[in-house]
Amino acid sequence: MTAATTSPTTPAAAWAELCSGNVRFVEDRMLHPSQGIDRRAELSAEQHPFAVVFGCSDSRVAAEIIFDQGLGDLFVVRTAGHVLDTTVIGSIEYGVSVLGAPLVVVLAHDSCGAVAATVDAMTTGNVPPGFVQAVVDRVIPSIVGLTASGRPLDTFDAATLGHEHVLHTARQLHGYSVSLAKEVTEGRCAIVALEYTLADGRARVAQVIGDIGAGMGVVPPQD
Ligand SMILES: [Zn+2]
């Protein structure tokens, strides 16, 4: 496959490109774009990725593969359980403000081990070893609200817990990053929270903050 000739420059175009790539992946029609010698050479001096993908580190959710993209297309930031901290937010801001990416994806997936470990820690008191606890500590704020009604956390299904976590992560990112929020307000960027399903490879929209076209823009919800 030859190098991409036109890289998306708007949130809507970037979203359309990611959607197309994920459909190709789901249907086993991948083009493996931007992975040849020409593309490598073209990128040696500079990069203009069209999306920041901030996702879970899970080995089964590799961004370039599931969106059928190549070198120079995606600025990828990954942590276990897609948990945020200051260097993660700084990395995402770099992709948007410095490199000019018009879209940020927060990529969650089903059967996330970080979410499961957090539920385990909160219901049994089992504390993960070493700095793994820091990951769990950053998932807790996403799902602790579910217990407000008094219902035990371990009675919620994994899909509900994962959904809450990705929604909270997207809102948290938008809330913490002043520069990203400004880009969203001015229409230069948008944030899309996606839930990826391991079995079928499809990434589904959980939430949109900003405008990605086709009537999918929404007002950012408040915590
Ligand atoms: Zn995960």
Report how far apart the termini are: 44 Å
Rg over C-alpha atoms, rounded to the nearest angstrom: 18 Å
The amount of beta strand, in percent, is 5-15%
| Helix/sheet category | alpha/beta
CATH architecture of the domain at 11-111 and 170-219: 3-Layer(aba) Sandwich
Basic shape = globular
Helix content: 40-55%
CATH homologous superfamily title of the domain at 11-111 and 170-219: Carbonic anhydrase
Number of strands: 5
Order of helices and strands: HHEHEHEHHHHEE
Main β-sheet description: 5 strands, mixed
Structural description of this entry:
The structure is a single chain. With 223 residues, this protein is of the alpha/beta class. The protein has a domain at 11-111 and 170-219: Beta-carbonic Anhydrase, Chain A, CATH 3.40.1050. Helices cover 40% and strands 15% of the residues. It has eight helices and five strands, in the order H-H-E-H-E-H-E-H-H-H-H-E-E. It has helices at residues 11-26, 37-42, 63-66, 86-98, 113-124, 132-143, 158-176, 178-185, and strands at residues 51-56, 74-79, 103-109, 190-196, 203-209. A hairpin with a 6-residue loop joins strand 4 (190-196) and strand 5 (203-209). The chain binds zinc ion. Zinc ion binds next to helix 5.
